Amino acid sequence: MAFSLTLAVYRLLLPFLFVAAFPGWVVKMLRRGGFGTRLGERAAIYQENTDFEPCGATHVHAVSVGEALLALKLIRAWREVDPDQCFVLATGTSTGHDVATAAGIPGLRVTYAPLDFRWMVRRYLRRFEPARVVLVEGEAWPHLLLACRRRGIPVSLVNARMSPRSARRYRKFAAVVRPLFGMLDKVAIQQAEDAEVWRDLGVAAENIVLTGSLKFDPGAGRPVRRPEFHDMLEVFGRKPVVLAASTHAGEETWIANAIRSALPDALPVIVPRHAERRAEVRQALENDGHHVVLRSRFAEEGGHSDPRSVFVIDSTGELRDWTAHADIVLIGKSFLSTGGQNPAEAILAEKPVVFGPHMENFEPLASRLVDRGGALRAGNQEQLARAIRTTADPDHAGGMTREATAVLSVHEGAARRIIALLAAPGSTSK
Predict the structure, then answer these.
(1) 168 Rama sector, left if φ>0, alpha if ψ -120 to 50, beta otherwise
(2) Which three-class secondary structure state does DSSP give residue 310?
(3) ∠ at Cα 400 (396, 401), nearest 5°?
(4) Is the CATH number of domain 2-23+31-220+413-423 3.40.50.11720?
(5) Which residue stretches of 324-393 are H helix?
(6) Beta carbons of 158 and 129 less than 8 angstroms apart
(7) Lowest-confidence segment of 17-31, 41-55, 408-422 by average pLDDT
């Protein structure tokens, strides 16, 4: 009864929420160039003839860029096991769509996930007739789950993540959300302690499977050194390279100054979380006396041996491989914001990692890394500068990367376990 009432309220409010969010969404799409990427598919309006669509495929839903990269990792690993498996990757953002399209996986149909209006979801499912739907990390939308349940299409959640804050919020409304999460056929969790949360939220115990983290699986795609990246860094003529990964507003200058204080000869490489902030980032750094070179304008501007140079990577989908060229990696959104960003790619690249006090979205991993000596935590600029100098020592850095790799090793094989779970007999029918 509580769920029926909540669903009725949801259906009543959904159009108003869409209208309220629409202006901000338009601005974001303009900044990210999304209007040239078939955005009509968000409303289940398609350009291709239905006859050419891959019906009966495995549909992987990934909203953000990070989730799209995880989805691509899973798809690549799955195709190694079953080359004939057909996939559709449904994204929620234009940047995620760009990353998925640029991956160039043969036969992969990239589309937009429909908005959660009933008629849009129905059109999407009628068009593609998925064999299964796989949600990456979250975004369990009511109408999608209900429509899949009616059509006998299993829906699984992989790399399931529930922050302590989200768990507390959901538990307050457990009576309402249990029917929703109870429609999930399988939930692949990252760590054993998460099982209790998902049981409390309505997922049957037998449907909760510990697989480890796809994000932290060392065997599911490591950063690689690209010759073109090496050539760009060589133009600057300086070492070491200190890379700040997925920075948020305010962090770029704060981190660049700490790098300059710690290692005056280092090259700060800043990778903003959102590439469309390039003008804002450049202005802030230049106002503080740094000489900025943008990745997008490297051909025109070139590198610069100026000791004040900061290299800003204003591109999408390249962060993983840039970490392979760094000597030290600093994790953004952990110093002046909250939540943190993923340290796994830097660890997989065997780079020493430093982050700030706010890694809430990556607990307990962050605390385990610090406790084992696999990462350093810095609470202010002085501590960050000290941590950078410490990790610049090759012996200390080597010890950190060995311990960090050991912490991640428990997740090795996560992709293989997730694939086995999803492809198990009976997983494509109710």
Answers:
(1) alpha
(2) strand
(3) 120
(4) yes
(5) 344-348, 365-372, 381-391
(6) no
(7) 17-31
Q: How far is CA 229 from the centre of its chain?
A: 22
Domain spanning 227-411, CATH architecture: 3-Layer(aba) Sandwich (3.40)
How far is residue 365's CA from residue 164's CA, in Å, rounded to a whole number?
13
Cβ 376 vs Cβ 397: under 8 Å: no
**Fold identical between 2-23+31-220+413-423 and 227-411?**
yes
pLDDT in tens, 230-247: 999 999 987 899 999 999
- For residues 321 and 389, what is the distance between their CA atoms, to the nearest angstrom? 24
Q: How far is CA 140 from the centre of its chain?
A: 17
pLDDT, position 430: 43
Q: Which of 148, 232, 250, 162 is nearest to 199 (CA)?
A: 162
CA contacts within 13 A on the Cβ side of 200: 15
Q: Is pLDDT at 59 greater than 90 in this prediction?
A: yes
Which tens digit of pLDDT belongs to each residue from 251-302? 999 999 999 999 999 999 999 998 889 999 999 999 999 999 999 999 887 7
Instruction: Tell me the domain boundaries of the chain.
Output: 2-23+31-220+413-423, 227-411
- Transcribe 89-125 into DSSP letters: EEESSHHHHHHHHHT--TTPEEEEPPPS-HHHHHHHH
Cis, peptide link before residue 179, omega less than 30° from 0:
no
pTM equals 0.80
